[in-house]
Amino acid sequence: MSTTLDRIRGFLAEHDPPTPCLVIDVDTVLERYHALAATFDGCRIQYAVKANPEPAVLRALVAAGASFDVASPAEIELCLAAGAAPETLSYGNTVKKRADIAFAHRAGVREYVIEAESDLVNVAEEAQGAQVSVRLLVEAPASVTPFGRKFGCAADQAVPLLLRAAELGLDPAGVSFHVGSQQLDTGAWDLAIASAAKVFTATAEHGVPLRRLNVGGGIGVGYTGPVPAPADYAAAIGAALREHLPGQAPEVVLEPGRAIVAEAGLVRCEVVLVSRKSADDAERWVYLDIGRYNGLAETENEAIAYRLEVVTDHSAADGPVIIAGPTCDGDDVLYQRTPYRLPLSLRPGDRIDILSAGAYTASYSSVAFNGIPPLRTYCIHSIHEGRPRSAE
Ligand SMILES: Cc1ncc(COP(=O)(O)O)c(C=O)c1O
Q: Does residue 30 form part of some domain?
């Protein structure tokens, strides 16, 4: 049976598209979705569209029965165009304009996540009767790409917001949180679920029982280091639910982005320049045709260390490198602290594959910094629904 890499490299060998480009193997997306759905049995799997909003990815997930976390009117339109029913969309962004809520409501979106009174009032006025969840600010251990304190409110704010939602004629559905993306500490969910349980108890005491708990994304992907298996995350979350919400069995929603698309994607790029800044420098600078602004935003602070594989044949001898992107911005340096080694004979024109690059790459790509176009994506399918392998 062919692997994800075989299929993607087969496509690249056949079509040799200009670099940089991202190739997504849609079969792998589906395989990851089904695996998560089986591991988190009984949970609703709500794909975080921001991770990779490619229409072919969304269409496949719609057909597989996924729900969707959307963050803007544009993401709503993409999901609907892919065939998603509006009831399967949840507006998860707590930072939204009143006009965006009105748009979502007209489109049929029925669930909104909020963290502040003004947004709650806007939802009440623009999306009468909608389901509302409050996002909790959780003091989780730092993830690889943490949110800091940007999103959510403390439990003592969440309770009055949910009670107010009921007064405003909304449907106070539950609580959501996100313990940070690429969260490698499964214990993070225990802290968050303990805090969510306090909100469940307090609102119930005021006659407003909650029924839904959205445990966010955060499932890790093995880029260059080991990560817990999905089953480890599921076990930790299950144990925390049993401990903190005994006998309550809320509807549990899992909102993965990275874990569904990262390993389905590979970026092929090209070496543009190799420069040794002075004769006695140990490291060479290797400049690629992809950088911080055309797809590799998650290299900020060197958070995500992608696995690189040189495609062009080279002798085994390698040496340390600093890796940078192609633009005129001094911050467009990908790795200078994380140790990377590349062949000593590497030269301009050589191709490099960036593995597990399907999440948060194309969707973060700028429109034209230095005139560089957004990262081009090709989606490939093997045989499903009787269709032959094709590229879009
Ligand atoms: C509200 C929300 N849900 C889900 C996700 C997906 O997280 P991950 O890609 O870590 O699974 C994100 C990511 O930023 C998010 O903001």
A: yes
Ligand 1, residues 33, 36, 46, 50: which to mutate, most atoms within 8 A of Cβ?
A: 50
- Of 33, 52, 69, 254, which is best to mutate to test ligand 1, by the most ligand atoms within 8 angstroms of its C-beta? 69
The encoded tokens of residue 386 equal 């009787």
C-alpha R_g of the chain: 22
374 Cβ contact list (under 8 Å, min separation 6): 294, 362, 365, 366, 367
For residues 207 and 328, membership in a common domain is answered with no
Active site residue 328: yes
Please tell me which residue in 21, 43, 269, 328 is annotated as part of the active site: 328
Q: Domain boundary residue among 236, 262, 288?
A: 262
Distance CA 170, CA 191 (A): 28
Please report whether residue 15 resides in a domain. Answer: no
- pLDDT tens, per residue, the chain with 392 residues: 789 999 999 999 999 999 999 999 999 999 999 999 999 999 999 999 999 999 999 999 999 999 999 999 999 999 999 999 999 999 999 999 999 999 999 999 999 999 999 999 999 999 999 999 999 999 877 788 888 888 999 999 999 999 999 999 999 999 999 999 999 999 999 999 999 999 999 999 999 999 999 999 999 999 999 999 999 999 999 999 999 999 999 999 999 999 999 999 999 999 999 999 999 999 999 999 999 999 999 999 999 999 999 998 877 799 999 999 999 999 999 999 999 999 999 999 999 999 999 999 999 999 999 999 999 999 999 754 334 444 55
CA of 178 to the centre of ligand 1 (A): 7
Last residue of a domain, one of 231, 246, 262: 262
* Closest CA relative to residue 354, chosen from 322, 306, 313: 306
Number of neighbours of residue 13 by Cβ within 10 angstroms: 9
Give the CATH number, domain containing residue 169: 3.20.20.10
End-to-end CA distance of the chain: 23
